[in-house]
Amino acid sequence: MRLSGQGVEEKLMATNYIDTELKELYYDHSKHLVTIKYMGSTDDDVEDREYTVLFKECFSATFNTWLEGAEGDIPQSPNDVAFYFHDISIRGIVVEGVSLYQVKMVIPMMDCQITCKSIEIVRSGI
After folding, report:
1. How many CB atoms lie within 10 A of CB 80?
2. Mean pLDDT by 10 residues, the chain (126 residues)
3. Who contacts 48 (Cβ-Cβ below 8 Å, separation ≥6)?
4. CB neighbours of residue 100 within 10 Å
5. Collapsing DSSP states into helix, strand and coil, what is residue 79?
6. pTM
7. Edge to edge, what strands does the sheet with 22-28 contain?
8. DSSP secondary structure code for residue 47 in this structure
9. How far apart are CA 43 and CA 71, in angstroms?
């Protein structure tokens, strides 16, 4: 059974992703797959574990970085910037009879929006 957008949000929230660093963000256009990785934990974990979130069968994916509003030391290159999650919101939508997830990630200095058919959360090191 397909989880609601809120159900997927709750599963992500259980990994304690807020304020964790985005370790990897990859969009494979040929496979219509977005992969993100971060270190997280559940309330039962003794130490952080790597989580991989797979956004599958993506109809759209946009990622934009910017410097507007940056304070303190300004990076000389996007490679000098670390990105940290603040929030991920997911809602279910239906387009022409197709059930999709619309995902918006709040990551300072980056806009991320994804529309996909399914989302899988994988915990490594088990």
Report:
1. 9
2. 92 92 94 96 80 97 79 74 90 96 91 96 80
3. 39, 40, 41
4. 21
5. helix
6. 0.88
7. 22-28, 33-40, 49-65, 110-123, 98-107, 87-95
8. S
9. 33
The Cα 118–Cα 57 span in angstroms is 7
Looking up tokens 């790597």, which residue turns up?
50
Give the β-pairing of 87-95 and 49-65: unpaired
Q: Judging by beta carbons within 10 Å of its beta carbon (0-12, 13-18, 19+), is residue 26 exposed, middle or buried? A: exposed
Long-range contacts of 12-16 (CB under 8 A, 24+ apart): 12/53, 12/88, 12/90, 12/121, 14/42, 14/43, 15/40, 15/41, 15/42, 15/51, 15/121, 15/123, 16/40, 16/41, 16/42
For tokens 């990076």, the residue is 75
78 within 8 A of 102, measured Cβ to Cβ? no
| pLDDT at residue 104, rounded to an integer | 96
Residue pair 122/54 in contact by the 8 Å Cβ criterion: yes
| Contact of 69 with 96, CB cutoff 8 Å | no
Q: How far apart are CA 52 and CA 49, in angstroms?
A: 10
